[in-house]
Design brief:
Number of strands: 7
Order of helices and strands: HEEEHHHHEHHHEEE
Shape: globular
Strand order of the largest sheet: 1-2-5-6-7
Number of helices: 8
Radius of gyration: 29 Å
Oligomer: single chain
Helix content: 40-55%
Largest sheet: 5 strands, antiparallel
Length: 278
């Protein structure tokens, strides 16, 4: 039976209406997705902003506790992580003494050789690296890659034991990590483990612990500070907050301010706070 013109036209209209409905549904879906993404981004921006403010508060709190005259409230720069509830979030604060790191700008030639040897392809390369460090102050340990041409993996491996705020080329055995002490020229594992055991017992002074390290005592110091590394990780509790910061501070040395920030690095990410590995 032949299809009448008005029936054919009605079929076209139906198809057009179905396409229009589909397009409208697609537009609504895109609009909803855009609104949801905008809300998600706005929430992240708020969490990042709160995290930035709270990491700064964590550094302020660490500086205050380092300067606290009351021993009951004093925080030691022993590398342990403390959890604090503040501003609807949890702050994980770690304070370590820069005297436990090697000052890259003050290194003795022998110590520099010992630190760099595992990454050198030859004795000639090692010698060139040590010579390049002499009289060429770095602003931060990461510049070793640019100055010496060290691969990023080597710079990353060394960075956790280096500083530019140590004051001299020696390290304090009371706060240095086992790995840092083992990097010293002629270091003996038995001596270092014995010294660390004395340190863990408590009660021994820096000279007494250093006396157990006869093979490396020329590169040890009893100096504490004056710079300290503060690491703060923020996790939102009652309200969203995301952030992490690492600051090098100089407390109690400036009459115009309780402390000075020597270095600051922050990022709007969060992970498990690092625990003391000493």
């Amino acid at each position: 039976m032949p299809i009448r013109p008005n029936e054919r036209q009605g079929g076209f209209v139906l198809v057009a209406v179905l396409w229009l409905v589909t397009l409208l549904a697609l537009q609504i879906s895109i609009f909803n997705l855009t609104v949801r993404d905008a809300g998600f981004l706005a929430g992240n921006e708020l969490a990042f902003a709160r995290g930035e403010a709270l990491t700064a508060a964590g550094v302020e709190l660490a500086a205050a506790r380092l300067l606290e005259p009351d021993a009951a409230w004093l925080w030691l720069a022993d590398g342990s992580t403390r959890e604090v509830s503040f501003g609807g979030a949890r702050l994980y604060i770690t304070i370590s003494d820069e005297a436990g790191r090697f000052d890259i700008n003050e290194l003795d030639g022998e110590v520099a050789e010992s630190l760099l040897r595992p990454f050198a392809r030859s004795e000639q390369v090692l010698k060139q690296w040590v010579e390049s460090l002499q009289g060429r102050p770095l602003l931060e340990p990461s510049e070793l890659g640019r100055v010496l041409g060290l691969p990023s993996s080597a710079v990353q491996a060394l960075a956790q034991y280096l500083t530019v705020h140590g004051g001299d080329g020696k390290i304090n055995a009371m706060v240095a990590s086992r790995a840092a002490l083992l990097m010293l020229p002629g270091a003996k594992t038995v001596e270092i483990d014995r010294a660390l055991e004395l340190r863990r017992r408590g009660g021994e002074s820096a000279p007494e612990v250093a006396a157990a390290l006869g093979s490396v005592d020329q590169w040890l110091t009893s100096r504490a500070g004056p710079a300290y590394r503060v690491e703060v990780t923020v996790r939102g509790d009652g309200q969203p907050a995301i952030g992490r910061a690492e600051a090098i501070i100089l407390p109690g040395k400036d009459p115009a301010a309780p402390f000075r920030v020597l270095s600051w690095r922050s990022e709007p990410t969060v992970g498990e706070p690092e625990r003391d590995q000493r």
